[in-house]
Each structure stands twice: as structure tokens, then as C-alpha cells.
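User: Structure please.
Assistant: Input sequence and predicted structure:
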Amino acid sequence: EVFEFAPSVKEQYEALNGLQEIYVNDLTRPDVYLTLEKELGMGDSDNQRRDSLTFAAAQRQFDLGNHERSLEAFANYLEKYEDGQYEMLARYNQGRSALILENYDIALEAFANLCDLNSARFPDACAKGAKIAYHYAQDFELAQNLFLKSEKVSQSQEEQEAAIIGILQSAFRTQNDSLIYTYSQKVLSIEKLSDADRVFAH
């Protein structure tokens, strides 16, 4: 309504910022805001800007702990901008939201895809995906592959040892004799190995 009374440029942009707060941050409707911005001739709604605002709407809900809304918003972002500038962070936080909501199918897909895209940037995505694949989905081939990637990108000795044990457990399930032989030796070399894992490795 403020735009109908020919306000100053400053007032117009203040009103526009208010609309952005409502439609992007509160309602998670960046599409509506961008349409309004375009109709008012006050914004550059190129693809990069649309990408940024669509991601920002999802990230806002994630930061607020509104994980059901963030899950839907990240899915919307990834559908519209599959190769977007925030694709990897969107997948990571989509997986984290899904994990909190115990939606393990979506979490597994997000973490597995991210591990394939760039396991080095989000190393714990491989570990998270591997655990879900093994314990929930019982897709032991996938778990094995994700644990193998997790071993390579792990950031600590503890994470690496967890990946090594996961590889051996998965290899038994997939009957991969080569990995069983190699990783039995690796598991037995772990200094602080539990009795259960030691017996398993033998």
C-alpha cells in the first residue's frame, strides 16, 4: 500500500525490506517476494538472485529449528536449482533436518549424494550416510562404499577407526573376502579396540 502514495526512494526500499522479511524469512515464499519485486520494478531478479533467496528462505527455517519447514524448503531449492551455488550446503542441512526428524530415507539420500559430490568438504556426511545405510536401510553395499569414503576423508583418528570397523562389518554382510582380510588386520591394529570388535575381527 505504501507504494501507491509515491513515497521517497528510502521509504520504498524500507517497505521492500519489510516484504522480504515477511515472504522470505517468515513465510518461506521467496517466489512471491520476487514476483512483487519484479512488478514494482525495484529488483534484479536474475537466476543467481533467485537461487540465493530461495536458499536463504530454507536456511532461515533451519537456523530457527523449524526442521519440517526447512526440509520442505530445501527440497524446493534442490528441485529448482539442482546445480545451484548452495547445492552442497542445502543437501547437508537437508540431511541434518531429516536426521533430527528421523526421516532416514531423506537423510540417507542427502548424505549419500553429498558424499559423492564432495566428500572432502563435508566429511561427516559420509559417516552419517554410512551408519544410516547399515543400521536403518540395511543396504550393506552402499554402507560399505560410504564407510570406505569416510575412511579417506575422516578428520580424526576416532572417525577413521569407526570407518574401518564399519567397513569390516559391511564387508562381512556383502561377503567381500578381500575387504574382510584387509580390514580385519586394520581393525586388530586399533589400539583402544573393544572386546566385541576384537572378537569380531578374529
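The chain has a mean pLDDT of 85.
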